[in-house]
Design a protein that fits this description.
Blueprint (H helix, E strand, L loop, with lengths): L5 E6 L4 H11 L5 E8 L3 H11 L3 E4 L5 H8 L4 E2 L2 H6 L5 E4 L7 H9 L3 E4 L2 H18 L2 E4 L2 H10 L7 E8 L17 H4 L9 H9 L1 H13 L7 E5 L5 E7 L4 E5 L5 H9 L14 H4 L13 H12 L3 H17 L7 H12 L8 H20 L9
Helix pairs in contact: 1-11, 2-3, 5-6, 6-10, 6-14, 10-13, 13-15, 14-15, 14-16, 15-16
This protein binds NADP nicotinamide-adenine-dinucleotide phosphate (NAP).
Length: about 400
């Protein structure tokens, strides 16, 4: 008899990762049943998705739209907050593909309920890695990475002894401005920042890729996902985005995972684990056509956000939550034309410097640090800045 379909809750279904996950689900008929769909503001797309997948539960941040959603999805459907979706008995697997801090509560609820969590939402582990990994242990939940770099490391570790890992090596494309002279960074526009050279992603992560904050977040996430201290996580620039990341083992051997830059591959890996299911639609890597693969050290002076993230990750406690919250607000300010691209790092630096942190915080202390950093960064943008930050 065929296995019953895996019940999946897709949180952030209208975003870049969420839409690609639904493509993967469509491409594997009978394998999954979508039991819940959740989105932020894009209720029109969510209604279309609800009409197609008939989930039991839906959630949209725009509360007034809940009744339309119910009408779109069918009589059985009801709306429920994301925490309830994440712990629902019919959800075997929860994809957390929301952006920002919104995914933390649902990820914790799912792990405490013993679910498998396919985690895309970076801020969850950056803000509260210790609490999230403890929740997974205590609730017997399972964390599966979705991000291409962590998926690469995860795949390199299958069948390996974790004690034999000597180093994790994360690759970074360098983002939209990797070839721009540093003095020109002050004048770049949000539209330019959104032109990533190798990946097609959501707006926030694309800007974070241009500052390399994204790579700093990934180092902090890797620290928690694979239980490897920050000083054994290395970043290497790799402009082709073909080698997605690497693991060095105690005997000096290095394993890498390669592929075309296409998020459907790591998404598929996380949703179908431990199976590798044949797929025609994902482009195959042709190494002869790729010709050269280039690697170099990151320039921390050019990418101050990477330095700030690595420092905050090494300090731990509430500092990574402040890093993530200040960055979220500063990126919004940049996208809204309130600050310059180079001010993103200044804003995050100011929040980290002013923060009175805690070393082993509770969830409440992390959430308080998050609120404090958002308010601090918002107020700071409204004040005239000292001359040192302006030209
Ligand atoms: N895109 C990638 O290739 C990629 C790769 C690795 C990791 N990630 C990480 O995965 C996460 C999602 O990235 P993305 O690129 O898919 O972002 P995105 O395109 O901006 O999508 C974010 C999703 O979250 C929803 N959302 C935002 N706030 C919400 C809230 N308060 N409640 C419910 N839903 C909310 C959005 O809804 P609306 O659109 O309806 O407002 C959207 O569905 C991020 O943390 C990102 O860093 C992304």
């Amino acid at each position: 008899m065929a296995d019953p379909p895996t019940g999946i809750a897709v949180l952030g279904s209208t975003g870049s990762v969420g839409r690609q996950a639904l493509d993967v689900i469509r491409s594997l008929p009978g394998r999954f049943r979508v039991v819940a769909l959740a989105a932020g503001a894009n209720h029109t797309l969510l209604e279309d998705q609800a009409r197609e997948f008939h989930p039991d539960l839906v959630w949209c941040q725009v509360a007034a739209r809940h009744m339309d959603l119910k009408a779109a999805a069918g009589r059985r459907t009801r709306w429920a907050p994301m925490e309830e979706m994440a712990a629902h008995p019919a959800a075997d697997l929860v994809l957390v593909a929301t952006s920002g801090a919104a995914g933390l509560g649902p990820a914790l609820a799912a792990l405490r309920a013993g679910k498998a969590v396919a985690l895309a939402n970076k801020e969850v582990l950056v803000m509260a890695g210790g609490i999230v990994t403890r929740a997974a242990e205590q609730g017997r939940g399972e964390l599966r990475p979705v991000d291409s770099e962590h998926s690469a490391i995860w795949q390199c570790l299958w069948g390996e002894d974790p004690a034999a890992v000597s180093k994790l090596i994360l690759t970074a494309s360098g983002g939209a401005f990797r070839d721009l002279p540093p003095r020109e960074l002050e004048r770049v526009t949000p539209q330019q920042a959104l032109r990533h050279p190798t990946w097609d992603m959501g707006r926030k992560i694309t800007v974070d890729s241009a500052t390399l904050m994204n790579k700093g977040f990934e180092a902090i996430e890797a620290r928690w996902l694979f239980d490897v201290p920050m000083d054994r996580i290395e970043i290497v620039m790799h402009r082709e985005s073909i080698v997605h990341s690497l693991v060095e083992f105690a005997d000096g051997s290095v394993k890498a995972q390669l592929g075309e830059p296409d998020m459907r591959l790591p998404i598929r890996c996380a949703l179908c684990y431990p199976e590798r299911i044949a797929c025609e639609s994902i482009p195959r890597l042709n190494l002869a056509r790729a010709k050269a693969l280039n690697f170099s050290e990151p320039d921390l002076a050019r990418y101050p956000c990477l330095r700030l993230a690595l420092e905050a990750g090494a300090k731990g406690g509430t500092w990574p939550a402040v890093l993530a919250a200040a960055d979220e607000v500063a990126v919004e300010q940049f996208m809204g034309g309130e600050i310059r691209f180079t001010d993103i790092a200044n804003a995050v630096d100011a929040a980290l410097s002013a923060h009175d942190g805690r070393a082993d915080p509770s969830l409440d202390e992390i959430l308080e640090a998050d609120r404090w950093a958002r308010a601090f960064t918002a107020q700071r943008a409204a004040r005239p800045q000292p001359v040192a930050h302006r030209t």
